[in-house]
Amino acid sequence: MAMTGMDIYKNLPKSNCKECGFPTCLAFAMQVAAKQKALTDCPQLSDEAKDAFADASAPPMKLVHIGPEGDAQVKIGQETVMFRHEDKFYNASALAGKVAASLSDEEASARLRQINEAAFSRIGQDISVSMAAVEVEGLSADAAAGRAKTLADASRVPLILMGSDPAVVAAAAGAIADKKPLIYQATADNAEAMIKVAADNKCPLAATADTLEELADLARSAADAGVGDVVLSFDGRDTAKTLRNITSARRAALKKNFRALGFPAMVDAACDDPFKETVLAATFTAKYAGIIIINGLDGSELIPLLTAAQNIYTDPQVPNTVEAKLYEVGDVTDSSPVLFTTNFALTYFSVEGEVERSKVPSYICVVDTEGLGVLNAYAGDKISPEKVVKTLGEQSVADKVKHRKLIIPGLLPPFRAEIEDTSEWKEVIIGPESATGIPRFLAENWN
Ligand code: SF4
Predict the structure, then answer these.
(1) Which protein residue has the closest C-alpha to ligand 1 atom 6?
(2) Measuring from atom 2 of ligand 1, which residue has the nearest CA?
(3) Which of 45, 149, 169, 388 is deepest in the core (most CB within 10 A)?
(4) In a domain, 122, yes or no
(5) Number of domains comprising the chain
(6) Each residue of 87-101: pLDDT tens digit?
(7) How far, in Å, is the centroid of ligand 1 from the Cα of 211?
């Protein structure tokens, strides 16, 4: 039976020393109960308590770090549920752009530059390709080491070293061991030597096998050799089998506490057909890959995939919001238009993006609607003319402009009369229903 926060708390020193990074032992215990921390993360824990409870309280899926410490380090795993609505998914899938061994050195460097530059901004967050999967298959050991070193030095993201020959992968790993690449991958044919490469270089290891039983054996062998950071690897081309196995592995780890499969998964979805690759990668973003290897680096493939990962790995119980305040877009003056919208992040950033596109510097007054978009907020009684007027006052918007014109969302025309009747905003203009109409609307209605 799962230990509760209080069960765990009873076994802690209760000194509130904060060495674990939490303000109190109780706060730490709650994190252990939520499977986000291991009991052994408390440095004050007695050896007896460690022996008695560490295994029972350890997260069912290990958190695996790839790359050196820092912002670009990839963290995958430590998931706790099969379905997002049960709690949330914690560590978003990382997309890895493949650098094929067949490329010349110049082509490989150019490809890495593409990976470095594959970054976008969406609803105020940076989303990007997070890894480079550098294939060394078929290269000599010297060439593999040289390529790994050149690309690792130029990369903003951690590397995966892909190859089946342990001697070649060892040369590449040895050249960039300080970058903590993911060694890809141990198979039934090379397991002993590939595990040694990971152990010697203190790197995480990907392992693959035909069956989950064999995969569990490989993970146990890695652990016995001192390689604790393992990633379960699956081939995306056999989609049905991979979906079955990746789901069964996760269920065994989370529901049965089967430690040998208690690791994050990865899928090689790279193929020549960009449409098929996008579908495969999207499928395994949802279920349940921590890393997905792809070929395509075009925005038409990346943006949908990164958006999917961003959406799936948000907390479904916490609305995605922005601060309710007055935003200035561009070099505003006292003649700039004033618009209002809600604090649902997707709504706000859609409006902000379109105002930017209009090139008309504007004020955007954001009303706190508890994270709901315009229509939902209206239907749920989270926005009203009275609340808009109150917010305009709290944000001192009238002090910023000399006019008293207010552009309201086109979905809220009933607000016009009441705002005009009850406030100093005497000219309320009904804007477009959709944010995409803002540039044209401002061009035609604001001089
Ligand atoms: S390190 Fe241990 S004893 Fe100190 S606050 Fe954290 S849980 Fe409590």
Answers:
(1) 20
(2) 42
(3) 169
(4) yes
(5) 3
(6) 899 999 999 999 999
(7) 41
